[in-house]
Specification:
This protein is an alpha+beta fold. The chain contains five helices and five strands, in the order ββαβββαααα. Strands 2-1-5-3-4 form a five-stranded mixed β-sheet, sandwiched between helices. A hairpin with a 2-residue loop joins strand 3 and strand 4. Helix 2 packs across helix 3 and helix 2 crosses helix 5. The longest helix is centred in the C-terminal third of the chain and has 13 residues.
Length: 148
Amino acid sequence: MASTYNLIVNGVNKSVTVSNASMPLLWVLRDILGLTGTKYGCGIEVCGACTVLVNGQREHSCVVDVSSVAGKNILTVEGLAGDAVGQKVQKAWTDNQVPQCGYCQPGMMMACTGSIKAGHHGKDIASDLNHICMCGTYSRIRTSIQSL
């Protein structure tokens, strides 16, 4: 039986209808709302490519059921430009030319934004980012974090 949920995504109210209440938020964002910046990586909360902020907390959208985030504020990489902390993170990533392929970077920027919003700084942010980057841009990521 189809269910309809109201989500607040990047500050905009969205109503989504899904056939299964346990559908991962990742697929709602990508396939229903067309927000493809959030990436699918491993599907088991290891790589971090799917990281979003839900009510300011970092979540792996590949394992969060859409039913559990109804009515909550969801921030995706597409919404970072409208977020003061997110803008600083995006600028640091751009200034330090972090992305190579860029696949994992949306999740890393979201995790970094969430870490800063949680009051972390410097090395605390770096230790929060246990994401996997196949291109190996970790040194540029560390440089970007240090510049925040």
